[in-house]
Design a protein that fits this description.
The complex is a heterodimer of chains A (338) and B (222). With 338 residues, chain A is an alpha/beta fold. Chain A contains twelve helices and eleven strands. Chain A is globular, with a radius of gyration of 19 Å. The two termini of chain A are 19 Å apart. In chain B, helix 6 links the parallel strand 1 and strand 2. Classes of the chains: A alpha/beta (338), B alpha/beta (222). At the A-B interface, helix 5 of A face helix 4 and helix 6 of B.
């Protein structure tokens, strides 16, 4: 069975051994781990990850040292956080789209990554990963505080802004699918913080959900599975995610939800990817604690189907390499005990 | 509480900035915190009472609702906007000394971290509860915090971080602040921050929500 077949088996709620897994690194973590190993390191090959991601967050133009322009023409300051960065200047400061040009999805750097991943990893599950999909894309254009206030004060503008973003995303999905080789699309939008939803369920259902459904429909029309990344305490939106057609939810953070309880509640309706804490266990736990948490996830969730093992985000630079090595060893050398 | 002070508190709680504002929809056309504060001053109410018995009460209510996940960031932003619009009318009284702030709170996102939404929320809530806030912005070094404390004697400090990779910088900043000003209370917060981490580095207070920071600061001047 190929990694792709195993991944699909797991996210369609069938028992699968070994339990498929995905391990991703931030730039800082990859450099540290490579240095620890004392040689070259490949995130896909040397972890044995089951999925590859062709990302719209790659292929940005470096306009000056440490500053990168994304596909929407927005400049991000990556001088401190080299993986994510923050917006340097929001192009819209008034609730008007006048003068703002949305990008065309006809020719984008991500298309080359899709071709490359098709060529290099034909047996892996292949995601088109649309970072800053909708909510995050909107605040990257107007600023988070403006976006949230305008949802209440200027709702027509926000609807218009989001509609334009959705049109772009749907075109991006369709153009990417034309290349072939994709198995899924993964949306990335953080709708929640550590303690709860940022905009609340009502505004989310007014502004985000109908558009998420449109994007899901577009992906399903291309026979793609759908992943949704959303950090934070977002448990209350899981039934909505199921309703719109999300197949796999990540990062499944144990700090903000009882992941075992959530899994039990929704298994068979949505699958989960993540679960190993990058806020606590991986950066601050002992090797044994990493080992125990990893085995628990594999044994209790992985054994049932509907689960992809993964850290609860891309690994960060503060995680001891010894802990990373332990986690990789465990998932690469799974011995069936369920 | 007088009727107008209750109205002011209500406008802040529900984010009714002024009569023109379309939000909240069920208060369309009604006077907002802006007009009511001016009216209260015109009728001779003490500015201190307008602040402490009107505006601050509204912010306190929204802070509690936010902590309980009954409202969310957009509603808090509207309340903060209503508050700041009303505060404009009180500025001359702050300058003349007729109205006194509860104290000075210095806040910043720690060195290495450029994120600001959490910091801004705490800043708005603390300011809305009668404190003067000195916002040092993001990526703030220990030196900047220490200098700000020197410029604002008797102040307290809030450190914010979004990431585990930057949270660790709180420890160094805390040490520098305490070395320069042992009596300064240092509050910490941010997504990965916890009570355990607070205890580990020896900070004075941790809160998972802005209202907790407000209540702690208020307890220092009670």
């Amino acid at each position: 069975m190929t990694k792709k077949e195993s991944f699909i088996k797991a996210i369609t709620f069938r028992k699968c051994f070994p339990v498929p897994y995905v391990i991703r690194f931030t730039i800082e973590a990859e450099e540290r781990y490579q240095s620890f190993l004392g040689g070259t390191f490949d995130e896909i090959l040397d972890t044995g990850s089951y999925a590859v991601f062709s990302q719209t967050n790659s292929g940005w133009l470096e306009v000056r040292p440490g500053y990168f322009k994304d596909y929407f023409g927005i400049t991000w300051n990556k001088t401190k956080d080299r993986t994510l960065g923050i917006v340097d200047r929001y192009p819209i400061d008034k609730p008007s789209l006048k003068g703002f040009q949305f990008p065309s999805a006809d020719d984008l750097p991500v298309f080359k990554y899709i071709e490359r991943n098709n060529s290099c990893f034909p047996d892996h599950f292949h995601f088109l990963s649309i970072g800053f999909t909708l909510f995050e894309r909107a605040w990257s254009i107007v600023g988070m505080e403006n976006l949230m206030q305008w949802m209440l004060l200027e709702p027509e503008f926000v609807h218009d802004l989001l509609d334009n973003i959705v049109e772009y995303n749907i075109k991006l999905i369709q153009e990417s699918a034309k290349i072939g080789g994709l198995d899924g699309v993964r949306f990335g939008d953080d709708w929640a913080g550590q303690n709860g939803l940022l905009i609340g369920g009502d505004l989310w259902r007014e502004f985000i959900k109908p558009r998420l459904m449109r994007m899901c429909d577009a992906a399903k029309a291309e026979n793609l599975y759908i992943g949704q990344h959303c950090c934070g305490k977002v448990e209350s939106l899981i039934p909505d995610m199921i309703e719109v057609g999300i197949d796999v939810f990540d990062p499944f953070q144990p700090e903000v939800m009882d992941i075992y309880d959530v899994f039990k509640s929704f298994n068979g309706k949505i699958s989960f990817m993540g679960g190993l804490s990058i806020q606590k266990t991986l950066p601050y736990g002992s090797i044994k604690e990493v080992s125990d948490a990893s085995y628990k996830l594999l044994d209790e969730l992985g054994s049932q189907g509907g689960y992809i093992f993964s850290p609860s985000h891309a690994l960060t630079g503060d995680i001891p390499p010894e802990n990373i090595r332990e986690m990789i060893n465990i998932v690469r050398h799974q011995s069936k005990n369920f | 509480m007088s009727e107008i002070l209750e109205k002011i508190a209500y406008c802040v709680e529900f984010g009714k900035i002024n009569q023109q504002s379309p939000y909240p929809p069920d208060m369309k056309g009604q006077l907002g915190a802006d007009e009511l504060t001016k009216e209260a001053l015109d009728t001779g109410l003490a500015p201190e009472d307008i602040l402490k018995k009107g505006l601050v009460i509204g912010m306190e209510r929204i802070g509690i609702k936010f902590r309980e996940n009954k409202v969310f960031v957009p509603q808090v932003l509207m309340s903060a906007k209503a508050m700041s619009t009303a505060i404009e009318h009180l500025k001359p009284f702050f300058q003349s000394g007729d109205v006194k702030r509860s104290g000075i709170f210095i806040i910043g996102t720690v060195a290495g971290d450029l994120h600001d939404i959490g910091k801004n929320l705490v800043s708005m809530m603390v300011e809305g509860n009668g404190w003067e806030v000195v916002d040092l912005g993001t990526d703030v070094s220990a030196d900047k915090f220490v200098n700000a404390i020197k410029d604002n004697p008797g102040s307290h400090v809030g450190l914010s971080a979004l990431l585990t990779t930057t949270m660790i910088n709180m420890e160094h900043i805390l040490k520098e602040v305490k070395a320069a000003s042992p009596e300064t209370r240092v509050l910490i917060g941010g997504a990965p921050v916890s009570e355990d981490f607070k205890n580990k580095i020896g900070a004075d207070f941790y809160s998972p929500d802005p209202q907790g920071a407000v209540e702690y600061l208020n307890s220092l001047v009670a």
